[in-house]
Amino acid sequence: MAFFGKQPDTPAAPPSPNPHPPTPERIPAASPPPPVPGLTPSTSSTSSTVIGSKVKLVGDLSGDEDILINGRVEGKIRVDRKVVVATGAEVEGDVQAKSVIVGGRVHGQVLASERAELLASGRVQGNVHAPRIVMAEGAQIQGRVVMPTDAATRPLTPPRAEEAPRRPMTPPKPEDAARPPASPGTGG
Predict the structure, then answer these.
(1) CA 10/CA 93 separation, integer angstroms
(2) Which of 17, 100, 112, 187 sits between 20 and 30 A of 169, alpha carbons compared?
(3) In the chain, where do the E strands start and end?
(4) What is the 8-class DSSP label of residue 161?
């Protein structure tokens, strides 16, 4: 019986599922850093280390994986794979690797056993040793460029005195070309 316009109590039907449930608030994802030439994420079992743009690492760094430097490193870097010094990054020390790509600044020697590449924004204050060097227009090197046939085994010191020629080669003077050669034993 209805009491004051109220329907009689009947068991309530379960609520129907909402076909469009409310969506959770979307949190915008941080934009990924711009791609760095030469260091792309790999799908193989090799890994890489990234030193962030707000990170300062003091000390030597060594290992057997690719390294991407976006921040600052004060110390020597020696790895068996690839080192990328990204645009805006800075390294105070020598960088030794199989392949080195410089888009930022390196204050020290760059020693690459296979290849060194300087991007347009790359700056090196020190010598660059590599059998193959790629240098974009605008890149700067304050130091020597050494391209030995095998950078890993070649000494980084100048050649010894006995390896240098005994006397410098000079082109003949024009008056010497017109004069007939002296015959041996004439004394004159």
Answers:
(1) 82
(2) 187
(3) 48-51, 56-58, 61-63, 66-69, 72-74, 77-79, 82-85, 90-92, 95-102, 105-107, 110-118, 123-125, 128-129, 133-135, 140-142, 145-146
(4) G
Q: Cβ–Cβ contacts within 10 Å for residue 106, how many?
A: 28
DSSP-derived letter for residue 88 is T
Per DSSP, 23 falls in state: P
Q: Read off the pTM.
A: 0.58
Mean pLDDT check: name the lowest of 11-25, 59-73, 107-121: 11-25
What pLDDT is attached to residue 187? Answer: 53
Return the half-sphere exposure (C-beta side, CA atoms, 13 A cut-off) of residue 153: 2
Please tell me what DSSP assigns to residue 99: E
10 Å Cβ neighbour count for 74? 14
